[in-house]
Amino acid sequence: MLTVFSSKHQLHHGIELKDGLIGPSFEKPQRADTVLNRVKTIQLGKIISEREFDRACYVKAHSERYISFLECAWSEWSALGRNYDALPLVWPVRDLAIDQEPNFIDGKLGFYSMDAGCPITAGTWEAVKASADTALTACDEIIQKNIKSAFALCRPPGHHAAREYMGGYCYLNNAAIAAEYALTQGFKKVAILDVDFHHGNGTQNIFYDRDDVFFASIHGDPKDSYPYFSGFENELGIGAGLGFTANYPLSKGTKWVEYKEALESLLERINEYGADFLIISLGVDTFKDDPISHFCLESDDYFEMGKTISELNIPTLFIMEGGYMVDEIGINAVNTLLGFEGKFL
Q1: Is residue 105 within 8 Å of residue 35, measured between CB atoms?
Q2: Strand pairing category for 47-49 and 149-153
Q3: Is 103 exposed, middle or buried (0-12, 13-18, 19+ CB in 10 A)?
Q4: Which of 77, 115, 277, 278 is the most exposed place for a label (fewest CB within 10 A)?
Q5: What are the alphabetically sorted keywords of the record (predicted)?
Q6: Is residue 154 a contact partner of residue 12, using CB atoms and an 8 Å limit?
Q7: CA 326 to CA 245: how far, in whole Å?
Q8: pTM of the predicted structure, to 2 decimals
Q9: Distance CA 45, CA 39 (A)
Q10: Residue 62: pLDDT above 90?
Q11: Where are the domains of the chain?
């Protein structure tokens, strides 16, 4: 399987507020490097670098003012003499009546974020842009070369980034950006299947009122798990999108037998939808020893996950999302890809 990777991800590494403490982020450069090393060790296939895409590709999934904020946030922050990571100071309770972007960077950081897990550093925008370009490159390779699948080894991840806010280590929504691109290239119905432990709230936000993208997610029950405020079963879409969002929240301690049942059910929904292009938001924080999650999948289960997904038999783009047990993240991600290709170690 083709892998697309950008070394520019190394430009972003920061701090986060978690459990009442400021400390190094769980989302660190070693994550992507560990996965890449496993890709090379297993000889999964050819590895290429990302190509640059026009920023208009990002605006299709996000808003113009949000992209402009990400581009300029560090320069506005550092112009005040602040040479340390930028984190929000205050968050608005946003509704339709609160839609005025603040002038000052402290206000902007809160306006465009959902948590304190997305630091802005000097290299953040370049890394974030390269991550989105990685997804776009992999998507384009599938389309232009008519290949069955590709793996976008994205970092930072993207599925918590909504149309106008960042959060959960995510700035640009790589899966949503790739889906929009696939639609511009002639595909009619795109499905995004999110298998990360955490609900892909950002992806859901972007496509919630649309019927040309079916969003499906298996994740920890939001009553107990981040991001807490989305991912419930009764979230089905609105307007034209009603019925084109499907959420399967699962309880703490979920093992493969329960997980597979949910996976097969969602794949059946995607098949009934008639998707002609599939995007997998591949988070492997469903692993039993992941430090910030509480499912109990084993490394061998990821072979089965990949094999099960392959049965849809449509063009499939895998996009790297979460997974924070660095020693196993490469094994579990690559096992999924090997399973998809019908290979088992």
Answers
A1: no
A2: unpaired
A3: exposed
A4: 115
A5: Hydrolase, Metal-binding, Plasmid, Zinc
A6: no
A7: 31
A8: 0.97
A9: 8
A10: yes
A11: 2-57+122-341
Residue 93's CB is within 10 A of a number of other CB atoms, namely 5
pLDDT at 96 over 90: no
Q: DSSP E strands: which ranges in 292-332?
A: 316-320
The residue type found at 126 is: E
Whether the per-residue pLDDT at 60 is higher than 60: the answer is: yes
- Angle subtended by helix axes 174-184 and 124-145, to nearest 10: 40
Number of Cβ within a 10 Å radius of residue 72: 14
Band (pLDDT 50/70/90 cuts) for residue 326 is confident
Separation between Cα atoms, residue 287 and residue 281, nearest integer Å: 15
Query: Given this model, what pLDDT does residue 48 score?
Result: 98
**Cβ 199 vs Cβ 247: under 8 Å:** yes
Q: Which residues pair with 5 in a beta bridge?
A: 49, 153
Gap between the Cα atoms of 142 and 295, Å rounded = 32
Q: What is the secondary structure of 127-196 as a DSSP string? A: HHHHHHHHHHHHHHHHHHHT-SEEEEE-SS--TT--SS-BBTTBSS-HHHHHHHHHHHTT-S-EEEEE-S
AA letter at 119: P
The counts of H helices and E strands in the chain are: 10, 10
CA distance 179 to 174: 9
Domain 2-57+122-341: CATH superfamily, name plus number: Histone deacetylase domain (3.40.800.20)
Res. 342: pLDDT tops 80 = yes
Catalytic residue among 160, 198, 199, 219: 160
Active site (annotated) includes residue 160: yes
